Amino acid sequence: MRLRNIIIVTVIVPLFLILLVFSLVAIKSLEDNVRTKLQSEVQIISHAIGTSLGYALERDTPDALQESLHSAFSFHRIYGAYVFDTQGDKIYGLGLGEELFDAEDIRAVVEAEEPTGDYRQHERWNYYSALVPLTTPGGEIRGVLQVNRLNTGIENYTGFISIVAVVVFAVGAAGIVLMIWWGFRHYIERPLNRLLGVMERVEKGDRSQRAAIDGPTEYRKLSLALNGMLDAMAEKDADIEARQRKEIELEKRLRKSKKLAELGVLAAGVAHEIGAPLTVINGQAQRLARREVIGDDERAKLGRIRSEVERIVVIVRQLMELGRQHNVEKECCRLDELIAAAIDLLEDELERLGSRVEVDLPTPAPQLTVNGQQLTQVFTNLMHNALQANPGGQIRVSAETLNGELHIKVEDDGPGIGEADKSRVFDPFFTTKPVGQGSGLGLSMVHRIINDHGGTVGVFDSALGGAGFELTFPADDPTPTQGAQPT
User: Fold this and answer.
1) Which residues contact 156 (CB under 8 A, 6 or more apart)?
2) What is the model's pLDDT at position 358?
3) Kind plus residue range of the DSSP H or E element containing 79
4) Long-range contacts made by residues 371-375, C-beta under 8 angstroms, separation at least 24?
5) φ, ψ for residue 319, nearest 5 deg
6) Cβ contacts of 406 within 8 Å, gap of 6 or more
7) How far apart are CA 370 and CA 351, in angstroms?
8) Which of 258, 210, 256 is nearest to 233 (CA)?
9) What pLDDT, on a 0 to 100 scale, did the predictor assign at position 52?
10) Residue 258's pLDDT is what?
11) Would you state the pLDDT for residue 75?
12) What is the distance between the alpha carbons of residues 404 and 407, in angstroms, rounded to a whole number?
């Protein structure tokens, strides 16, 4: 059953029944009071003129009898007065209602010697008539006085009052029902329907729905509670989603680290095996170049051989560095000093290419518990890549602390990195540079070092128009550590 019907059945209907019973009782009480007053007035009038009529009957003076009866009509609503003898025969009378009582009724009053009264109807009029025995001063009953008072006006009055009461009750009941219906619909049903609508839309998946904070106090409290519950659910969902994203990212990073570690071990093994032959080739080429029997052209070719061998040796060293176990000895370092050290290492190249480095760090500069030498190598590799991507361009290094983590960005205004290459940019030997301008191991080394420090590194499209690399470190790791981080 709907709430509106429950309220009508349990509150409105009983209230109206109580009001109806109360109204009927009030009307009945009013009618009884009016009749009692009427009876009392008629009896008082009858006793008032009965004494003088008793004297008139004893003295047998018709004039006094008539005068006394005439005095009865000076009272309000007295429409008839009659004097009967003890046998019921009329002696004298005036007005209406003579036939209300018969002789038998008159004789019964004489025998009972007690006044009486009754409501009687004659023709279309209703009367209240009182019969009073007329006693002489000596105590002898000489006749009976009948006084008639018209009751029709009183009945009409009480009837009118009843009709007015019924009309007022009906109009009042209709008005109350209408006001209750309007109030219920405006202040209860509509707000509840709005809340229900919000809940239904949330149930269908629209978690952004919120209830409007308006209306009565109870509804506002209910809306605030509902919105608070939805906010808590949204916050919990966002937290779960963030954890899932972080777990997925961690899983990707672990797979990437495992893959790089395997490649590093393989590359280190290969590098170790080809290192010795390269040394022999370089030594033999050096000896041949010292002989005087060869010409300048052959000597130049031997120099070219040695140059390429040395380049291979550099690559071999990088491969062995990538594959060997790292000892990460951490210390507290200022970020601005690490970046300045990297810029110093690249100072000649920066001046030669005409590139500029913009450093944007918070004040005071953040501090990191890291291996300073390895972090300097990270910044050197990233800025060196930026120089190669756009010689003479702009490099920007910035940092900020968010949610307990230090985020460092190295960006350039070069051509950027394509979406297809972003997932492979940290793979060993992957490079988009021309042949001979890069070994494809610099970013792999960056990934390795950041991973050894418990951080993360990612690539994004920079607002400068080129590529951007973001390094993330836990900001609350102040304790210097010493130990191996096996790969």
Assistant:
1) none
2) 93
3) strand 78-84
4) 371/328, 371/329, 371/330, 371/331, 371/449, 371/453, 372/331, 372/333, 372/337, 372/338, 372/341, 374/326, 374/328, 374/449, 374/452, 374/453, 375/333, 375/338, 375/449, 375/453
5) -65, -40
6) 335, 366, 368, 399, 400, 472, 473, 474, 475
7) 29
8) 210
9) 84
10) 75
11) 73
12) 10
Note whether 120 and 146 are within 8 A (CB): no
Q: Give the residue carrying structure tokens 């018969």.
A: 102
Residue 361's closest CA among 343, 337, 382? Answer: 337
Contact, 99 vs 122, CB < 8 A?
A: yes
Please report the pLDDT score of residue 343 as a whole number.
Answer: 92
Give Cα 197 distance to the centre of its chain: 12
What would the two tokens of residue 313 be?
A: 């040796």
For residue 158, how far is the Cα from the chain centroid? 59
**Cα dist. 43→92, 359, 401 in Å?**
20, 119, 107
The Cα 198–Cα 222 span in angstroms is 12
Report the chain (487 residues): mean pLDDT per 10 consecutive residues: 78 85 86 84 85 83 83 77 89 85 89 88 84 86 87 73 85 86 84 88 87 84 91 91 86 74 72 78 85 82 86 75 66 90 90 90 87 89 89 91 87 88 78 66 84 85 90 64 37
End-to-end Cα, the chain, rounded Å: 71
Query: H or E segment at 150?
Result: strand 141-150
Q: Are 302 and 289 in contact (CB under 8 A)?
A: yes
Q: What is the DSSP letter of 102?
A: -
Q: Please state the φ and ψ torsions of residue 483, each to the nearest 5 degrees.
A: 160, 170
Provide CB contacts within 8 A for 16, sequence distance 6+. 173
Kindly report whether the global pTM for this prediction surpasses the value 0.85.
no
- Say what the pLDDT of residue 480 is: 41
User: Which of 451, 475, 486, 478 has its CA nearest to residue 330?
Assistant: 478
Rounded to 5°, angle at Cα 19 from 18 and 20:
90
116: enclosing H helix or E strand: strand 116-122
Check residue 485 and give its pLDDT.
Answer: 38
pLDDT score for 156 = 75
